[in-house]
Design goal:
Layout lengths: L2 H23 L5 E5 L4 H12 L7 E7 L15 H11 L4 E6 L2 H6 L9 E5 L2 E5 L23 H16 L7 E6 L8 H4 L4 E3 L11 E6 L7 H10 L6 H4 L15 H10 L1 H14 L9 H7 L8 H7 L28
Parallel strand pairs: 1-2, 1-6, 2-3, 6-8
Antiparallel strand pairs: 3-4, 4-5, 7-8
Helix pairs in contact: 2-7, 9-10, 9-11
Length: 344
C-alpha cells in the first residue's frame, strides 16, 4: 500500500465517524452555508443536505466570483458559471450570495506597488464593501503558480478564502449563533486533501470570544468516490455545468493554472480570444502560467476534447444559463471520470 492509499484509508475511516457525528448534530445550527462553485462536488454537498432532510430554508449558497461580480471581460472563469449557480439555487428554492475581490483576478494579478483591493459580498441586508483589508504594498505582475503554498497559489487565498472570511467576519447575523460551513473537498483527489479533517472549527470561528460566533467546517463528501458524486447528481437529474459536458473533468476556472495540455488545447479551440489574452500576459510578465510551458506549448502537446458541439460552447460562453436545471433524460457528461487536474 503506497502512502496515498494509506492516507486515503485512514481518512475514509475517520470520515465515516465524523460524518455520523455531524449529521446527528445538524439540527443545532441556525444556518448552513454551502461554498458553491457550481462544480460536481459542491453540487453533491447540496443534494446530500436535501436527501438528509435539511430544509432549504436553513441553507444558503455562497459563490466566489473569481473575475469580480458580473465581469463582462472575464479572464479566468467560465462566463456561464455565475448564472448557472443562480439557476441551480432558484431551482431548489435556496438563496445564493456572491462575494468577490474588487477588480477580480486580473486586477490582483496586475498589482504594482499597491495594496490589495477591497472585498465585496452580498448579504440578506444588501451589498457590503470591506476596504482596508490589511497587508502592505506589493507587486505581483505574474500568474499564481501551481503549489501547495497559498502565498504562491494566491488565486485561492485572495479570491476565495479571504473573501469568505470577510463575509463571515463582517455580518452580525453570525454572532451569537451557530453556523455550519460546508465545502466539497474529497480524499480521492490527492494525498493532501486526504489529510483534511471532515469536521473541525472553521478558521473564522470565535465561539469562545465575546462575539460567540460559532462556525464549524464540514466536508460531507470527503470520503466519497467520484462515482458516488455522479450518482447523487443523476438521482436528482441535475443538468451538470456545461464545462463537464464539453469534456472537462473538473469545474475550476476555464483557464486554470492547473490546466492540462488537453484542457489548454480545448480552450484554444473554444475560446481563442481568452487564450490569446493569457499568452500576451505571459509575454508581458516573462513568466508562464505553467511553470514549464507557455499556454501555446501546453496546447501544442494536447488534443481538444471530442465533445465540443457548438451549442454547448455557446452555453458555456454565455453569461446566461438558458437550459433547464432539472432534466428528464439525464446522462453522464463527457467529462465524467476524465482528467481532473486541480489543487494537490
Amino acid at each position: 500500500m503506497d502512502s496515498f492509499e494509506k492516507y486515503q484509508l485512514e481518512a475514509l475511516t475517520e470520515a465515516d465517524r465524523q460524518c455520523d457525528f455531524c449529521w446527528n448534530e445538524i439540527d443545532k445550527y441556525e444556518r448552513i452555508v454551502v461554498a458553491f462553485s457550481g462544480g460536481k462536488d459542491s453540487l453533491a454537498c447540496l443534494l446530500l443536505l436535501l436527501e438528509q432532510g435539511v430544509s432549504p430554508r436553513c441553507i444558503e449558497l455562497w459563490h466566489h466570483c473569481v473575475d469580480g461580480f458580473g465581469s463582462a471581460n472575464a479572464l479566468m472563469d467560465w462566463p456561464v458559471t455565475e448564472d448557472y449557480c443562480r439557476q441551480v439555487a432558484n431551482a431548489f428554492g435556496i438563496p445564493i450570495y456572491y462575494s468577490w475581490k474588487e477588480g477580480g483576478f486580473e486586477t490582483e494579478m496586475l498589482r504594482s506597488d499597491a495594496l490589495t483591493m477591497p472585498v465585496w459580498f452580498e448579504s440578506p441586508d444588501g451589498v457590503v464593501r470591506i476596504a482596508g483589508t490589511g497587508g502592505s504594498r506589493s507587486t505581483r505582475l505574474r500568474f499564481p503558480q501551481v503549489s501547495a503554498s497559498l502565498s504562491t497559489r494566491w488565486c485561492s487565498a485572495y479570491l476565495k478564502i479571504d473573501v469568505a472570511s470577510k463575509a463571515l467576519n463582517h455580518q452580525s447575523r453570525f454572532n451569537q449563533s451557530r453556523t455550519l460551513f460546508i465545502t466539497g473537498e474529497r480524499a480521492q483527489e490527492s494525498a493532501s486533501r486526504a489529510r483534511y479533517a471532515v469536521f473541525e472549527p472553521h478558521r473564522n470561528d470565535r465561539r469562545s470570544g465575546k462575539l460567540k460566533r460559532h462556525v464549524d467546517h464540514f466536508r460531507p463528501v470527503h470520503a466519497w468516490s467520484e462515482h458516488e458524486v455522479w450518482d447523487i447528481i443523476g438521482r436528482h437529474k441535475v443538468n451538470p455545468h456545461p464545462a463537464y459536458r464539453l469534456g472537462f473533468g473538473r469545474l475550476s476556472c476555464m483557464t486554470c493554472i492547473f490546466g492540462s495540455a488537453n484542457q489548454w488545447a480545448s480552450v484554444q479551440k473554444i475560446a481563442p480570444d481568452r487564450f490569446s489574452r493569457i499568452a500576451k500576459y505571459e509575454e508581458q510578465f516573462g513568466y508562464t502560467i505553467n511553470r514549464k510551458h507557455s499556454v501555446h506549448g501546453m496546447a501544442d502537446r494536447g488534443v481538444p476534447y471530442d465533445a465540443i458541439p457548438q451549442e454547448l460552447v455557446a452555453s458555456a460562453m454565455s453569461a446566461s444559463f438558458g437550459e433547464p436545471v432539472i432534466v428528464s433524460d439525464w446522462k453522464l457528461p463527457a467529462g465524467a471520470f476524465g482528467e481532473a487536474s486541480g489543487p494537490a
